[in-house]
Design brief:
The complex is a heterodimer of chains A (211) and B (253).
Chain A lengths: L10 E10 L2 E11 L4 E5 L6 H8 L7 E6 L2 E2 L5 H7 E4 L10 H6 L7 H10 L16 H13 L5 E5 L7 H16 L3 E6 L2 H7 L2 E4 L3
Parallel strand pairs in A: 3-8, 3-9, 6-7, 7-8
Antiparallel strand pairs in A: 1-2, 1-4, 4-5
Helix pairs in contact in A: 4-5
Chain B lengths: L2 H23 L5 H27 L3 H19 L7 H22 L7 H32 L1 H9 L4 H26 L7 H8 L4 H34 E2 L3 E2 L6
Antiparallel strand pairs in B: 1-2
Helix pairs in contact in B: 1-2, 3-4, 3-5, 4-5, 4-9, 5-7, 5-9, 6-7, 7-9, 8-9
Classes of the chains: A alpha/beta (211), B mainly alpha (253).
């Protein structure tokens, strides 16, 4: 799975192993997530996709292997900086209390209105969304707000955990098109999915994670 | 023993018999439980009465008595906080520090006489309150660390420090721990007459003396319980925050 040509920029993970409690969830996993591409991480449910994404931003510890971002071991990068540079959008996005704007400004209180609207637009959301109560949004809207919220941190890479799992086909395609647009701006995107149709339609390169 | 003591004991047993009788008559299935609780209360209060009589005779024993209260409270709270590493020691610190400090202040300023008769019950009330706050705060916090993982993880993923990510859970837990004493303070004299007030009145104090003593106990209790909750929250954070802005319970997911 490893590809030396892709290793210089973005994330390069090699031989990653993770144990949660007593269970080894990942062993010997290699993945590269370069900028300017949509990388699809395909695996059946329970294969450890979410755990891998969390390990890439140090939300869980690895037992073995190396993970670098732009050639620097992620262990040497301040965890908060790492998580701002590599945005993680969870499978079931949690909306924090308040409005959509409050969510987008969370941790970046000085975000200008223009940047806020730009992030909404990047996630294919109308500026009028800013005043909506985040907790009242539908699943598809939450997925987009979570995407916009990750974008307000100015990430180099975006990791999306099964962003289309709870969405209908049309909404999923909408998300796919959004990811392509973000890729065209130079952002590296990694999307986990078990939907082969979605992967075939929207992913530039595919990494299979065996369960 | 005076006949007054026997009369009270017999009256108490009479009330317990009424409760057991009602339970049997209405088939509530609590008759045995009430009877056992009654016997326990008799034995425990007789024992504590005897022990306190000893403390009054040998004042040095007051320290042992208070230490035993703190130890029992810590074991009780600690056993309710399974899942938290070193729960008993953390409970001990959370209970002992604020409760004993407040007792010392109350004795030092002369709010209570520096005698076992005043110090032991005062320490008992404050240790009991600290135990309740520690248990409630700790349990709510452990629930959060189990149930609010997605929210905590979202905050971390957005670039929060672990402390900031845990702050809402900490606030909720400390508030939960404080609710009983806030309600007690708010309703004092309106809904119930608290123990200190009743005890002093029965002991012959004037209502003004009883009210002033109750007031200082209640307000000290509020500060002690807040202190206990905050300490437990801080000690829990130290147990679950890992290097690299991670939270321990996030791995159990």
């Amino acid at each position: 799975m490893s590809d030396p040509d892709l290793a210089t920029r973005g994330i390069d993970a090699r031989g990653v192993a993770v144990t949660l409690g007593e269970r080894q969830v990942l062993r010997g996993v290699d993945i590269q997530i370069p900028p300017g591409r949509v990388t699809g991480l395909l695996a059946p449910s329970g294969a450890g996709k979410s755990t891998l994404l969390r390990a890439l931003v140090r939300l869980v510890d690895t037992d073995a292997g190396t993970i670098t971002l732009d050639g620097t071991d992620i262990g040497a990068i301040d965890a908060r900086d790492l998580r701002r540079r590599v945005g993680l959008v969870a499978q079931t996005p949690v909306m924090l209390p308040g409005s959509v704007a409050d969510n987008l400004r969370y941790g970046v209180e000085d975000l200008s209105d223009d940047d806020l609207h730009a992030a909404l637009a990047d996630a294919d959301l109308d500026p009028a969304f800013a005043t909506r109560v985040a907790g009242d949004l539908s699943g598809g809207e939450r997925a987009r707000v979570a995407l916009a919220r990750a974008l307000t941190r100015g990430p180099e890479l975006l990791l999306l955990d099964e962003p289309t799992s709870a969405l209908d086909h049309d909404t999923a395609d909408h998300i796919g098109a959004t990811l392509r647009r973000l890729r065209d701006t130079g952002l590296g995107v990694c999307v986990t999915t078990h939907d082969l149709g979605f992967a075939d339609a929207w992913v530039d390169r595919r990494v299979d994670l065996l369960g | 023993m005076s006949s007054d003591i026997w009369l009270k004991a017999i009256a108490g047993a009479g009330f317990a018999a009424i409760a057991v009788g009602l339970s049997i008559r209405y088939r509530l299935g609590h008759g045995r439980e009430i009877a056992i609780a009654t016997i326990r209360a008799f034995v425990q209060l007789a024992a504590v009465g005897g022990l306190i009589a000893l403390v009054f005779r040998f004042p040095g024993l007051a320290l042992v008595f208070v230490a035993a209260m703190v130890a029992t409270a810590s074991l009780t709270a600690g056993s309710r906080l399974r899942g938290l590493p070193g729960a008993r020691v953390r409970a001990l610190v959370s209970i002992a520090l604020p409760a004993l400090a407040a007792t010392a202040v109350l004795l030092a300023i002369g709010a209570f006489a520096f005698t076992p008769r005043a110090a032991v019950p005062t320490a008992g009330i404050l240790v009991g309150g600290a135990m309740t706050a520690t248990t409630l705060t700790g349990r709510r916090l452990l629930e959060s660390l189990r149930d609010d993982v997605p929210e905590i993880e979202t905050r971390l993923a957005l670039g929060d420090t672990a402390r900031t990510a845990l702050a809402p859970a900490i606030r909720r837990a400390v508030h939960t721990g404080l609710v009983p004493v806030i309600d007690q303070t708010r309703s004092v004299g309106l809904v119930t007459l608290p123990g200190t007030f009743v005890g002093l009145i029965l002991g012959g104090a004037t209502p003004a003396e009883a009210a002033a003593t109750q007031l200082v106990v209640l307000l000290a209790l509020m500060a002690v319980e807040l202190g206990a909750g905050l300490l437990l929250a801080e000690l829990t954070q130290r147990a679950v925050i890992l290097p690299g802005e991670r939270v321990l319970l996030l791995v159990i997911n």
